[in-house]
Amino acid sequence: MLNSFATSLPANVRAVGGELSSPQYSRVTIAPSQGPRLLDQLRERIRFLHYSLRTEEAYVYWCKAFICFHDKRHPKDLGGAEVEAFLSWLANERKVSASTHRQALSALLFLYGKVLDLNLPWLQAIGRPQVQRRLPVVLSREELAALFRHLSGEHLLFARLLYGTGLRLSEGLQLRVKDIDFSHQAIVVREGKGGKDRIVMLPQALVAGLRAQLARARDIWLADQAAGLGGVELPHALERKYPRAGASWAWFWLFPQATHSVDPRSGVVRRHHIYDQTFQRAFKKASLQAGIIKPATPHTLRHCFATHLLQGGSDIRTVQELLGHADVSTTMIYTHVLRMGGWAVRSPLDQL
């Protein structure tokens, strides 16, 4: 969504070399009279507050779009009217969703409040679009079985892991060797959404597959050690506190990427976990081959996990804890799904 947005900016704004640019101000960068560039200040502030890389990329993108929309004028010279004009263009011309609209607004509020340190009255006066909660897409057990038949190898194991534990896609990708506890039949989720840790069950049906996956991952780890290329990313300052931990087996990825890659923040070449796009493409292909017409994504497996647990009689508070929801009202959305189809009250038409 973020990459496609730049191609549809107004005629006077276009993306050049990966940077938003305007023809009449080609290659012009915005730099304060002193200190680092504005966008560098934005990145530094985001990292100081320990926001995720995805949040950093989104905020930088929307701030670039805002600046270019107003012909490269510095945000300090713009005010509430210009912010509302940009947001109105997004809503009326681009017809973005309410969630995308809120993301762009959050990026601009962060820029003015946290980076430029401007406590302006209009910051609080700008209206927030109301996000409408939609019913989640849920597959039946038959559809899940058909989907799994068209996946194989690592992708099949990963799909079954997401469905069997309710993990988010990013949480599953970031699992490390030390997070799998076979003795307690548990999986530890570190720094999930909101930076929270939690424990989920380890399905017995996955034990053999996970042990085989660990064996494959260990072969990759040993090859890296032999080649002197060992080391994976560690969270926060652990790399300074425990310099050798990144090369240890315990911290290695459960689903490592086949090749090395460049860390987007540090520029260090090392082993990363498998990319989310790789699994998303495999999932989409399998979904088409299985004849599933519902708009299913990898996140649908998490919805299936919650819905099928509730259908089986699990307590909603237990499901809330397994999903890592801060508020039970978020989990309650799955009870609406249970009221549909064969789990609901019978239609009077069926009684004629």
Overview of the molecule:
The chain has 352 residues and is mainly alpha-helical. Helix content is 46%, strand content 8%. It has 16 helices and seven strands. Strand 6 (256-262) and strand 7 form a beta hairpin. Helix 2 (38-48) runs antiparallel to helix 3 (53-69), helix 3 crosses helix 5 and helix 8 (153-165) packs across helix 13 (300-311). It is globular. 25% of the residues are buried.
> Which secondary-structure class do the elements indicate?
mainly alpha
Strand portion, in percent?
Answer: 5-15%
- Low-confidence spans: pLDDT under 50, at least 5 residues? 11-33
What sequence of helices (H) and strands (E) makes up the elements?
Answer: HEEHHHHHHHHEEEHHEEHHHHH
Main β-sheet description: 3 strands, antiparallel
User: How confident overall, as mean pLDDT?
Assistant: 82
Write the layout of secondary structure elements.
Blueprint: H1 2-5, E1 14-16, E2 19-21, H2 38-48, H3 53-69, H4 80-92, H5 98-115, H6 121-125, H7 141-149, H8 153-165, H9 169-173, E3 180-181, E4 186-189, E5 198-201, H10 207-226, H11 238-241, E6 256-262, E7 269-273, H12 276-289, H13 300-311, H14 316-323, H15 328-331, H16 333-338
Antiparallel strand pairs: 1-2, 3-4, 4-5, 6-7
